[in-house]
Write a structure and sequence with these properties.
Elements (H helix, E strand, L loop, with lengths): L3 H8 L3 H26 L4 H8 L3 H8 L6 H10 L17
Helix pairs in contact: 3-4, 3-5
């Protein structure tokens, strides 16, 4: 029986899978960062949503990695006092 890491590394050899995996991984990391910043500021989802002028449900979806659009993300970043920056692409790194 193959370990998860071994299976994932095998799947990551497929360029299309690897690209999709990296996009989802980055979105998940972003979602976690937003939750951590909100918690550090001791703000509820409702409070941030009100400041961002979005619904609490929209914020919940963003924090859970369910859905996101750029406008919503920018509003939430502004409400949390964050600056969204783009960076040059990097080489895809192996997992594990």
């Amino acid at each position: 029986m193959q370990t998860f890491t071994a299976h994932l590394n095998e799947k990551l050899q497929d360029v299309r899978f690897r690209k999709m995996y990296e996009e989802e991984r980055r979105f998940a990391e972003l979602s976690v960062q937003l939750v951590e910043v909100r918690a550090k500021l001791s703000l509820s989802q409702k409070e941030v949503a009100q400041q961002a002028k979005i619904t609490q449900q929209q914020l919940s979806k963003l924090e859970n990695g369910v859905s996101c659009n750029v406008t919503t993300l920018l509003k939430v970043c502004k409400a949390l006092g964050l600056k969204l920056e783009l960076e040059e692409p990097r080489e895809l790194e192996p997992v594990g």
